[in-house]
Amino acid sequence: MHGVLPSRKTSHPPPYAAARGYATFFPNVTDYNFGESPRSWALVPGLRHALAVYPHTPYFFALSPHALIMNPSIDLRAHILDKKKLETLMLKDKPVVPPDSVIKTFGNLQGDRVDLILTQDGEGLCQGSFILRRGDWAKFFLETWFDPLYRSYNFQKAEGHALEHIVQWHPTILAKLALIPQRLLNSYSVDIASRGGKDVMYKDGEFVVRLVGCELDQNRDCEKEMETYYEKWKHGVEKKT
């Protein structure tokens, strides 16, 4: 397992990764050429870069730079990736884009056939915290997602809307997708009604807290919000040592 964390220069979450035998990869946005597209698109070539740097790694966990792993006792293999466990978590026959997309997740997909694990909130798919399995399909998926045509569309949510587009209209991508409950991988720090409100806000003991949208809101300070959760994380670790 390797963590891919775009442009986050910090010592966290490497302690979690080190404890689990994972490695981390911090891609630099300036290393990639995506023309006039928003910087958030760097996620995709960053993942491709990670696959090239670590050619023998089976799974990659992509995490937003505005997120923290809060519970270091959780092992992703047991928490999500185990075939039988994943099959109990998968949201089957679920509209890909809420609330009523006619395109739904497959109802008969087996856990060992899944190559992409995502969550969704009240607005759509969430690319801020997800898991990708290495293979030819992963290369195809990332090449499709980063297609210059989609980057030229100027989607309102850039790579987020492009992801929703390809998942809905490319059956070969939908066929490898598992949606799981959001709070297993992507709890939020704030109450945003359109994205799930209090139902998806972080609670003590959950795996990840994501400061969703903090970089887009002039009334929020990502660094201050991060510090609050970092201190909580540090306090929790110190209590266990």
The secondary-structure class comes to alpha/beta
- Spatially, the strands of the biggest sheet line up as 2-1-3-6-5-7
Beta-strand content bin? 5-15%
Radius of gyration: 17 Å
Mean pLDDT level = 91
Give a description of the structure.
The chain has 241 residues and is an alpha/beta fold. The protein is built from 9 helices and 9 strands. A 6-stranded mixed β-sheet has the order 2-1-3-6-5-7, sandwiched between helices. Strands 4-9-8 form a 3-stranded mixed β-sheet, covered by helices on one side. It starts with a strand and ends with a helix.
Question: What can be said about this structure in brief?
Answer:
It is built from nine helices and nine strands. It has 241 residues and is α/β, with parallel strands linked by helices. Strands 2-1-3-6-5-7 form a six-stranded mixed beta sheet, with helices on both faces.
